[in-house]
Amino acid sequence: MSIRSCLPAFLIAFSPLAFAAEVKAVADAIRAEATRPNDDAEGRPLPLATHWCTGSHPRSEGLAPRHQMRLIEEGHYLLPWLAHPPIEAQASPEASKRFADYYEAPLKRAAELKLPLCLKATQWESLLSAEPYLGLPPEKNPNVVTPEGKVRKMVCPFGPVEPWAEVGRKWTDNEPLRQLQAWYPDPPFVMFLSNNEHADLRWHKAEECQRYLDKFGKGRDDDFKRRVVADGWIERYRALQRGMREGLANARWRDKALFVGYGAFGPDHFGRWGGWPNYSLHSKGRISPYPLMWDGGSPSYYTHDWNPSRDHTVWSPQLEFMNLVFMQREAWRLNPGFWFEFSVWDGYSGAESEKKRPSPRMLYRLKGQTYNPARYGGFVQFGLWLLRPRAVREFRGWTFPSDEAMPYFMALVEAVDRVHTNDTLRKFWRKGELVPNRAHQHHYQAGIPEEWKGEDRWFLLDADVNPQEFPWDLHWDVPVFSLALVMGQAPERQWLVYAHSPVKERTGVKLTIPDYRQVTVDISPAGLFHVVEEKSGRVELVK
User: Fold this and answer.
1) What is the pLDDT of residues 19-59, one digit of tens each?
2) Per-residue pLDDT reduced to its tens digit, 68-127
3) All residues at 6 or more sequence positions from 321 whose CB lies less than 8 Å from its CB, including other chains
4) For the chain, what is the radius of gyration of the CA atoms?
5) Which residues share a beta bridge with 511?
6) For the chain, how long is the longest CA-to-CA vector?
7) CA–CA distance, 181 with 192 (Å, rounded to integer)
8) In what order do the strands lie in the sheet with 506-512?
9) Cα separation, 262 vs 266, whole angstroms
10) Cys-Cys crosslink for 378: which of 278, 500, 514, 515, Cβ 3.0 to 4.6 Å?
């Protein structure tokens, strides 16, 4: 809750200087954390809340940039996000007015506060699979060309590089984006965010590409194919981004541009089933090429509506994301400035969508469970404290009604605000070390490559209410999700324990802190924090 929201209305009305100072302090904190290095001496950068839906449709207008500015003025720690403007100049007075109404005032307010920006786009490279590129002769075509000479509408990691830089420049060397730069000429950074889901050549289908066969022939092993496909993507995506950077008119924007891709991170499904390598680009010595391909990545912490992932089972984002802890270290080794955030979705797209396919919310209700913003917030908070990302980005479709979205988004925002405003949480976020639970292995063990078998991938604290038989089946319920961060050295260690119980409130739950002892705590769907002191044995609720 912001300071301003606690003040009587007459104090707000007659305290413009105090209000301005409070807003400036929040904006200064947003800017400081957004630009803080990953390895800053002060510790980890504090998180920011952000979104995929840009509020550019009337139904979702409540998430538009002008409303984001209001939330920041109310004391919330947001990374502002806007729709990437269209490439073409506005063709009519009405379109020009809509453009100005959406961008001008929020950008000028962001400029006053010196806020960072995020411009969310579609797949930039999708232009390569449309005319005029799709119709180019095979030797000049950036799409896959089969051994039969057919052009497939998917980009190729072995095709010509020049078109990638060319389409990159198209996204930034245009009048609409020059106008944005004029309205806000000196941002501390500008993130260009790609949806990153355009069709491309999968490594296990490399031999369906004539260029691959020309270079390497048939019969290469899987590791080789993954490596050369990934290396091809690194070269081409960096060319695309180079073109975008060079197309920017403003030198400050060119210098501060950051290119982030949805899903551009290591395989969170690592080990879940034997076929996981088909959906990964790992190779010997490199779990993921994405830190070399992008400036940042946003993997999906999703309970999907098309698979059995749920917030209360073994097959869950909470346990799947434990795979990413060692991958995060690897990303920073390859690219120390890599921006790690994650995207959140609870699988709900609205009542109409549920008529075609049941959402997790519907399935929870059929089991007699309650699903609400508090439960959602507890789920998000677990991911936050497991990986401590730079930002957490909610997903809703671009036409999803903002009045339905806001209670859930604000639960996410409050989880972020809590880190900024609570001294204990801020201290552990900055300097705490995640505690592995080496009493058990992660339950995803299918086909783990030898070089990563020794990595810590299990951080769930043992709980007396959780299954006591190991290993766990993917579809078993997990009543309590808990983890711990530690600071200090024995015998004066302190632990921050976070636990949430998705389905119901629980009292007197016994959690085991590795290399210490059991502690007894109460747990809620919204999640609770406790500080445990080694020397005194005290267990104290963080309020």
Assistant:
1) 999 999 999 999 999 999 999 999 999 999 999 999 999 99
2) 999 999 999 999 999 999 999 888 999 999 999 999 999 999 999 999 999 999 999 999
3) 268, 299, 301, 342, 383, 386, 387
4) 24
5) 463, 519
6) 77
7) 14
8) 462-463, 506-512, 518-523
9) 12
10) 500
